[in-house]
Amino acid sequence: MKFKKDAQYFEAKIYSLASSQQETYVILEDKQKARLLPIEIGNIAASSIAIRFTGIAMPRPITQDLFLPIVEHLGGKIKFVSIDNFEKEPYYSSLALEKEGGEIKFIDMRPSDALAISVRAGCPIWVADDVLEKTLSVKKPISDSEISDFKSNLDELGPKKFFEQLKKDDN
User: Fold this and answer.
1) CB half-sphere exposure, 28, CA atoms < 13 A
2) How do strand 125-128 and strand 9-19 relate by DSSP bridges?
3) Can you name the residues that pair with 106 across neighbouring β-strands?
4) Count of beta carbons in the 10 Å neighbourhood of residue 7
5) 77-86 and 125-128: which strand pairing?
6) What is the pLDDT of residues 14-53, one digit of tens each?
7) What is the biggest distance separating any 2 CA atoms in the chain, rounded to whole angstroms?
8) Residue 141 has what pLDDT?
9) For residue range 90-130, what is the model confidence (pLDDT) as tens digits?
10) pLDDT beyond 70 at 159
């Protein structure tokens, strides 16, 4: 499923990574509203995102590090990535690639790869509004006590059980 040109999207940014030995989530934050969207990703993709955030210099480039120079070498530019849909567990995402001459092509890819590329390209992340209707979103903790409770519950339960509990509480 590719970018839906007729859908409404909101801009997001990576808020956090949450992980345990069994699972890892990237948590996106809506830039306009106090809400978070957790997306389960693999540990390798999470490491790729974390490496970029921490500024660790790898001795050899990893796959996502190669993507941006290849696109630029071919005269392209990454405009944005998007989280387009959610259906029975998998999220669907796209990368908007501007070719020389201004034509934009949409490339279907896993959200984890799209997000890993977005942190390298410094491009916007867009999320379709209807994704939040189909999945769980979390109210962003605002006060110090809410943040402390959020972190404590996340540590105690682990990401998967924490978000499952939020889903139960939301119903």
Assistant:
1) 30
2) antiparallel
3) 96
4) 14
5) parallel
6) 988 887 777 888 889 999 888 888 888 888 888 888 888 7
7) 52
8) 63
9) 889 999 999 988 999 999 999 999 999 999 999 999 999 98
10) no
Rounded-to-integer distance, Cα 90 and Cα 70, Å: 28
Q: b/e map of 13-29 (b: 16 or more CB within 10 Å)?
A: ebbebbbeeebbbbbbb
Integer CA distances (angstroms), 130 to 38, 40, 168, in order: 15, 18, 20
Residue 28 near residue 39, CB atoms below 8 Å = yes
Through-space distance between the first and last CA atoms of the chain, rounded to whole angstroms: 28
Cα 164 from chain centroid (whole Å): 19
Mapped onto helix, strand or coil, the DSSP state of residue 98 is: strand
pTM > 0.90: yes or no: no
Four-residue CA torsion sign, 52, 29, 96, 134 = positive
Quick check: 35 and 139 in contact, CB under 8 A?
Answer: yes
Residues with Cβ < 8 Å from 73, sequence gap 6 or more? none
Beta-bridge mates of residue 12 = 30, 125
Mean pLDDT across the chain:
83
